[in-house]
Amino acid sequence: MTDTSDHRPIRSFVLRQGRVSHAQARHLEELLPVWGIPYRPEILDLDAAFGRQAPKILEIGFGMGETTAAIAAAHPENDYLGIEVHTPGVGALLKEIAERSLANVRIIQHDAVEVLKDMIAPGSLSGVHVFFADPWHKTRHHKRRLIQPPLVALLASRLKSGGYLHCATDWEDYAVQQLAVLSGEPLLVNTAPETGYAPRPDYRPQTKFESRGLRLGHGVWDVVFRKVESGEPRVESGICAPKAR
What we know:
single chain, alpha/beta, Rossmann fold, seven-stranded mixed sheet
């Protein structure tokens, strides 16, 4: 038998499911069939999934869903597709959807790379959010970080011309890596070429965890790139060390 272990993909996550509360379990049972989209290795019709034509924003790793729900509630003109592997987080976002009566959020509980490759059509997304992904801070674990050149190339291919990719992190060396990786993708251009790191956009709310970190003097960095328009010259931006905000 051939050993294929060396060809297995490196996962950017480890399933630590944790405790699912009674409320989360109830919402998983009742609402995941309503607002969830099962993984299938076929292109998803996003307009059909949301029941309308509107800009589609993808979020990878929405955690417990508070930020996703807040953004969706503040921007009903957009549709938001959240991808998360952890069951408690899926249950928590379903609870937010129910309590806020959100009609513009859908969830896929599956590996984001497989969803992107198999379900999301090229040029179909208006934006992608990757907020506070696991920094895998030990050097030997950096290979597990989500933001790597192959994924960024895949994300860029799924964006419409002019669509954006927004990463945020509170881990300094991950901010440096994110800026370097996105700067190396030829389909993307930095929206903050002079500073490298963008001011926090108004649409991204500040989480309680983030606010506490800022009070303690921790840094938070937003990296926002845009997919170049057809025929648009790509302006190179400098890669600079991050400055805490």
